Amino acid sequence: MNLRRTSIAAAAILLVAGSLQPAFAGDSAIFEKPVRLEADGKIIDTGNRLGHSGPTMADVDGDGIPDLVVGDFSGQFRVYPNLVRTGMPRLGPMKYLMAGGVPAKVPIYCCIGSSPLFVDFDGDGRLDLISGSYDPGACYLFLGLGHGQFAARETLLDKHNKLLLREPNQQQVYQSFGSWPALVDWDNDGDLDLLVGGFDGTIRIFLNEGTRTDPQFAGTNFKVQAAGKDVQVPDGHAAPVVVDWDGDGRWDILCGCARGSVYFYRNIGTRAAPKFAAPVTLVAEHHGTGYSEFREAGQEPVPGVRSQIAAVDYDRDGRVDLLLGDFCTTLTPKAGLTAAQRTEMTAIFQRQAEIAKVHKAIFAALVKEFEKKYPGNLAFSKEGDAWWTKAYQSMHKSRESEDLKRESADLESKLVPLIETPPDQRWLSGPATCHGYVWFYSRKPDAPASSLGTVAETPKTAPSNPLADPTEREPVVASLSVEPTRAKRGEVVAVTITVKIGRDWHINAVSDTREFAIPTKLEINLPSGMTTVGEWEIPKPDVALADSGPVYMGEVRFTRSLKVDSSAQAGRLELACKVSYQACDDHRCLRPTSKTLRAQLEIQAK
């Protein structure tokens, strides 16, 4: 395979693809100023593995504390153990995640970082690891064995034992390059479906036609849409995550992209039929190319390009924050340069920028001609591929290109003595230093509602009993809601128990199995004409407190799907759920409590 040809061809396709124009919420309205994460007293930087950081949080070692896991260009996964059980994480020395006795790794040789996603893939109660890849763009699974152990890599296949590629019938291998997976119950049938973002800027869905414990993915997929159009993030590199970003009980999609920006696709549909509003910008794009950007020694960096993200409550204050991994290369002058040397350096930068502008114009003209000759899917035909290869090689060997390459090499040789470049972070060519940081965007407590992305009228389902805030006398409050509030026979609805827990209080998790612990319990009393679909969706515990087990703090939601039977009578039905828990703070535990919560569902005749 010709790496240069396939990568350039993929870039050409992205250049001619349409892109969205999202509404803008503004970083400062939503987040505090982003800061780079540190571990063991040092800034986390994957530049020694060519950057492209891909962060997430998960309890990798099974101690009940979420750790930081970061993918990078090497295809491996760095684990930074969290050394504290509550509050802002304190990260220890890095080690690589092992699987089958060797470092876990996915195939990457261009343009992206590994994308760790921890989820119970097969319903056995253990966290598994899933990641995308670059070539061929498949997704890979490392089954969890418990106690921080993972099995050797498997390739995710469809129900026909074929690779799960965004373009199952692709004409050229590069059509599915670059993948970022997420898992979500798209159709609310009780199992997990596969959401895959791509280097082409689209997001696809592979429906699970199997079960929660034995996933069988369809051999075909469909594109996610927003505001009635296929999602297409600017310049590609769609790296999605699934999270209820606006706290309305419906999962949404956040997505990183090549420009370093992050977009919010608000779910304005239902749990059984997701529908997304036009995108809203949560993080603005990086100003610059991300390559060979000038930075003085000691100058504070800014988030770069190719954002890979995680939506987590990083500082455990009850609000969902954003972790953003990036890529960039920088040029920093050596200390002690004379004024003449700095003048020379500035002149070199200016001429390099002029040459880059000429290169870009030549390449854009070639892409325009290619698009005219081979529109749409013809770009991937054998004829189109052959034309592109020949034309690109001719462009590269032209006298103009050869002259520019010679001049560029001469300029670079003059620049090298002027630039400080750590040997272990040198980019693939030239004196640039490679970086891959992990940025923490802390969610502001008073972020205005508009910054959450309310760009379309959204149908909301209010709880049957309005949920008040916790008080000293009643530190835990709960309510029940059903969505949608009207349904026909054969349709699926979702009931959600929302529990608010007062500051400095917690309740034991559903999963707490300690001998003397009182775990949270959920019960549902179904009226005639309703049946359950799957089990309760149980949130992961926030933390494990010292001398205690897993707990919930802040606000948590428990959701279960119900189906309206064909025998259901038209009219109003009352749904009842009971939640039992024990509230504790650092000094005492209150008497165990049970609350019966009610909500109304209207069954429509037709």
Write the layout of secondary structure elements.
Elements (H helix, E strand, L loop, with lengths): L2 H14 L6 E2 L2 H4 L4 E2 L1 E2 L2 E2 L10 E5 L8 E5 L5 E4 L14 E2 L1 E2 L2 E2 L13 E3 L8 E4 L8 E3 L1 E3 L2 E2 L3 E2 L23 E6 L8 E6 L4 E4 L15 E2 L1 E2 L2 E2 L8 E5 L8 E5 L5 E4 L14 E4 L9 E2 L10 E8 L8 E13 L5 H35 L8 H16 L1 H17 L3 E2 L12 E3 L2 E4 L34 E8 L2 E3 L3 E10 L4 E3 L12 E5 L4 E8 L5 E2 L5 E3 L2 E10 L6 E11 L1 E2 L8 E12 L2
Helix pairs in contact: 1-3, 3-4, 3-5
How would you portray this structure in words?
The protein has 606 residues and is an alpha+beta fold. The protein has five helices and 44 strands. The strands form twelve sheets. Strands 2, 27, 28, 29, 30, 31 and 32 form a seven-stranded mixed beta sheet that branches. A five-stranded mixed beta sheet has the order 1-26-25-24-23, with no helix packed on it. A hairpin with a 5-residue loop joins strand 39 and strand 40 (550-552). The longest helix is centred in the middle third of the chain and has 35 residues, at 339-373. The radius of gyration is 26 Å and the shape is globular. The termini are far apart. Mean pLDDT is 86; it is low at 1-25 and 449-465.
